[in-house]
Amino acid sequence: MKIEQVPQDNANMLEGKFKEPCYALDENGKYTTVRSVGWDPKNVVMQDAWDAVNERIENIKAKVISGELSPIAFYMEKNLMDTKILASYVNLWRWTVKKHCKMKVFDKLPDSILIKYAETFDIELGQLKNKELI
Amino acid sequence: MDIDFKHAQSAHCENGVTSNLLKHYNINLSEPMIFGIGSGLFFSYLPFLKVNHIPVTTFRPLPGVIFKRAAKRIGFKIKSKRFSDPKEAMDALDEKLEQGIPVGMLVGVYHLTYFPKPYRFHFNAHNLVVYGKKDGNYLISDPIMETYTTLTYKELQRVRYAKGVFAPKGHMYWAEKIPQQINLEKAIVEGIKKTAKDMLKIPIPLFGVKGIRYLASQVRKYPNKLGDRKAAQYLGQIVRSQEEIGTGGAGFRFMFAAFLQEASDILKMPKLHDLALEMTAIGDLWREFAVDTARIVKARTKINDPYQGVANMLLVIADREKKVYEDLRNLIK
Fold it and tell me: Which chain B positions have a beta carbon within 8 Å of A6's beta carbon?
């Protein structure tokens, strides 16, 4: 890649926080770096990956509304976690977290447990408990 | 406590932290140099290891390996420590800062506040340097950023204790012994040898050139085996790791070419310069692979042909890379 070929396709993936150094050849055939805001093919595959995440979140949201899954399942997905990661954050067994993802079990959980989840998800306890808020 | 720490942005965090820490001790090596000496170029396809439900493809060795190898080959002694107690980890950091020692550490990016949101997932092997404390905030030199940044006590503690794969557990490291003199030629030779060997000789078909070929054979099966949506996601993931923050473009191939160019001058081997150009051409092929992949992902097509097309590209890349590593092995004995 030559320096004039370094793409500058902005899809706001870096949110203007920084530009990424790309290695490219200058006019004398020497390597240097050029900062790039993005590249279309990369933007496309990243957007596709985020679309897949959002689809999963929407799926789970529907299941929470129908009363099958609990808000814990929803916020877990929203925070890009799986039961393994979440279990280590709240310091519980994985299968316990799995159980807590069911609405029937969730409804009986004491605040002392729920607060651990709320802290992990960076939300108030009230928000976690209120199924209308998801 | 004020440590005069010079920050420089780099493509990859691990090279960047290594390069910035060395610079602090007056050893000036570029990012490609660190990358090459640390044998940072690699390839593996791990169908059984899934992140976010998709198999892992990676263009680099395991986190921490580049740093370790580069430090060892340069003769830089590093001490590192993990802590079971988060408070202890923060106290130990404060103590080092009091002594005027900049401290490198591993953190998770999910809760890293200054990171762009589209890149924030549960990746726990990001490196940064803490070089001081001001008004209760920690002064941070994060190599992916263009300049210095800060984190509060709570924010820093949180990212040091991120959970999941490769949980950092407060892992921090600092320089113990700085070499008086470095044998750069020897370090470069060792770096190149290891890269060529790993890309050619690992007797498991998931790694190196064989890994690229194996990936090609898998890509051919994606559309029929997975259906259009999933097939596109699997294919897209390859490009994501190829071009994600830190590779400098084309899965580190351009960075490696830059290293070969510098090495050519230092070792006085003009042939390395030719190989740098060939590696650049191979990097351009990886970029073409990304362009075609994005086209497939965008169209979400289930037709077989485009998948066969990108798989064929991977085979061409594998052949040409193989030749480069063989030439390197013959050149540097």
Answer: 249
The residues on A that touch B, with CB distances below 8 Å, are: 1, 6, 13-15, 17-25, 29-31, 33, 35, 39-42, 44-46, 48-50, 52-53, 79-81, 84-85, 88-89
In contact, B85 and A44? CB cutoff 8 Å: no
Q: Give B51's contacts (C-beta < 8 A, 6+ positions apart).
A: B165
Q: How many contiguous H segments (helices) and E segments (strands) does chain B have? A: 11, 8
Best mutation target, B10, B163, B295, to test chain A (most A CBs within 10 A): B163
Q: What is the rounded CA–CA span in Å between residue B255 and residue B251? A: 9
Q: Residue B246 has what pLDDT?
A: 85
Rounded to an integer, the average pLDDT of B152-180 is: 93
Asked if residue B7 is part of any domain, the answer here is no
- At residue A92 the predicted structure's pLDDT band, cuts being 50, 70 and 90, is very high
Residues B126 and B173 in one domain: yes
Q: Chain B residues with CB inside 8 Å of A42's CB?
A: 239-240, 243, 290, 294
Average pLDDT over residues A96-108: 97
Is this complex's ipTM strictly greater than 0.90? yes
Q: Which stretches of B135-269 are DSSP H helices?
A: 153-160, 184-201, 208-226, 228-243, 253-267
CA distance B284 to chain A (A): 6
The size of the A-B interface in CB pairs under 8 A is: 117
Domain enclosing residue B297, as ranges: 184-331
Domain that holds residue A105: 67-133
Over the stretch A10-64, which tens digit does the pLDDT of each residue have?
999 999 999 999 999 999 999 999 999 999 999 999 999 999 999 999 999 999 9
